[in-house]
Specification:
homodimer, mainly alpha, globular, disordered N terminus, DNA-binding
DNA sequence: TTTTTGCATATTGTTTACAATCTACAAACA
DNA sequence: TGTTTGTAGATTGTAAACAATATGCAAAAA
């Protein structure tokens, strides 16, 4: 069959057959820019401007706004416009409470369902964290941390949990992004916790994994709050 | 001041000052009809028809569809249309796992933050459950059950948790609605669990409340699955 | 008869135009 | 000087027109 009439991969003669509609395109692009802090929290999103920037009309942009509003990334005010959502300190605290519960379940399930290759990936991420930490690259650590926890969430083998987790984390990122520099000093401690988590999961101890992941999230919350309110000494 | 120039409540001379846009109106109405099973799972939602039924144009309807899609109530297929989401048995199982974790947190927090008036309300709901159960009104019990758990979720005093909880439960309802008749026989048992939950919360025992709520949700899952697979004997 | 092809129709995707509302600033008034 | 009111411009809300795609059915081919 290696010599059968092979169709040349014709370079999309007519059209690349757009897989995504302009709406999902706009939604993904806006989501990326918001999560990455390219568009900072509080920014007003002007329909016409964004439509022009993306090269589409206002319709698809409006639809993307609605989806992002439901996802909690923007706030939609009638006749006023849409704004990138701002997360207050107390709201962030609420997010951490919920995230701790979800991560607890992730730990419990991942300890029972994770595959060997995934454990290796987790260890690899931790190794990179060590490598990067000495050169004060808080930004790189942030990305690795997201990767670590998302991989763990996928290893729990529960699509609903994964969606809920990502939803909460996305919104929490609106808050954490602004405070990333504050947490640089806590990187070594946080990395130690990551190692202990993988140990528990690899051992298949679901109760311990649940406990350690919950504690890790709540400790992260405490560290962040202390970093933000240093006057409280 | 009781005699000051009192403006007659003029019957909205110009316009009632619409608080909600047509989009949120459409969204709320569709959400209500989907959750209540007025529009059953799997149904294809035709833009033009729904726009005509609601007396608006297609634009607002499309925006509402995007929001509902993000909320997980409908599935959007490019160039094919939107369909009321169908939840499979395995998906439902995943929902229950997540819901159990969220309810656990709800129990823990509610035990620490609930107010006396709310406890009285919970007891009142349970009383109504007893009254209705003897006349096989599974439908009424279903509504009371939703009310009970939603009140509990509000008593946890965490808006993020409340939103996540409602999101999960709404999608789970797509599944539970179809199976409501099956669970009639379990009403007495489930009501007993409700009483034990309120007892733990009233006592302020957050660990016990967490444990009982988690167990209650997982027991509900088991009961539902057994009711649906009676051949597995 | 069964399959395939082509066309008419219906439905969705997108754009454009228009209406309603808000915002900002300036003029009029106290 | 400070407040109110009116108007112009900008922005959002909605509707309607147009384009692209999918669907169903009938006719043609096997």
């Amino acid at each position: 069959m290696h010599n059968a009439l092979k169709k040349k991969p014709v370079a999309h003669a007519i059209e690349p057959l757009r897989q995504h509609s302009l709406v999902t395109l706009a939604q993904n692009e806006l989501e990326r820019r918001i999560i990455s802090d390219e568009i900072p929290a509080g920014t007003k999103l002007n329909e016409a401007d964004i439509a022009a920037a993306l090269g589409v009309s206002r319709g698809p942009v409006r639809e993307a706004f609605r989806a992002l509003g439901q996802a909690g990334l923007v706030r939609v005010e009638k006749n006023r416009g849409v704004f990138v959502r701002e997360v207050s300190l107390t709201e962030a605290s609420e997010f951490y409470e919920v995230r701790a519960a979800l991560e607890g379940l992730i730990g419990k399930l991942a300890a029972q369902r994770i595959q060997a290759a995934e454990i290796a990936q987790l260890r690899s991420i931790i190794k990179k964290m060590h490598a990067g930490s000495r050169s004060r690259k808080a930004d790189a650590y942030f990305a690795l941390n997201v990767e670590f926890h998302d991989l763990l969430a996928r290893a729990a083998r529960n699509e609903v949990l994964l969606a809920s987790y990502r939803n909460v984390v996305n919104q929490l990122d609106l808050y954490r992004r602004a405070t990333i520099s504050h947490s640089a000093s806590n990187i070594p401690l946080s990395t130690k916790e990551h190692e202990a988590i993988v140990d528990a999961i690899e051992a298949g101890d679901h109760a311990l994994a649940e406990k350690r992941l919950t504690a890790h999230v709540l400790a992260s919350r405490t560290r962040l709050q202390e970093a933000l309110a240093p006057a409280k000494k």
